[in-house]
Amino acid sequence: MLEVEKKIALVKSWIENLEFSSGKLNIKYIIDKKNCLEVEISKSNLIWSVLVNSPDFAPYRNVWIEVLDLDNIDNYYILSWGDDISTIEDDIINKLNETIILLLK
After folding, report:
1. In the chain, helix, strand, coil percent, each to 5?
2. Three-state DSSP class for 38?
3. 20 to 30 A Cα–Cα from 39, which one of 13, 54, 62, 86?
4. How far is it, in rounded angstroms, from Cα 7 to Cα 96?
């Protein structure tokens, strides 16, 4: 089981690598603390966000990813994913890679 601080470091490292590989995305750190990370990445009408924390009550353990389409008012949620107790590092990286592709199209 990964601790929240390790998951934050993992996601931050992934985002730093993304910043170097793609100059066409707007990356905004909403919260960047030891025990909580929230980042939004946007392109045109799409917003990708990740939240890593230790919630008291939520449908995820520590990592929550969402992709929203602001132009589709009736169905703006494209995708959401949350980790669980069995999630490993590779699962998180795979989901980060899988979801960011929606913005890179």
Report:
1. 30, 35, 35
2. strand
3. 86
4. 12
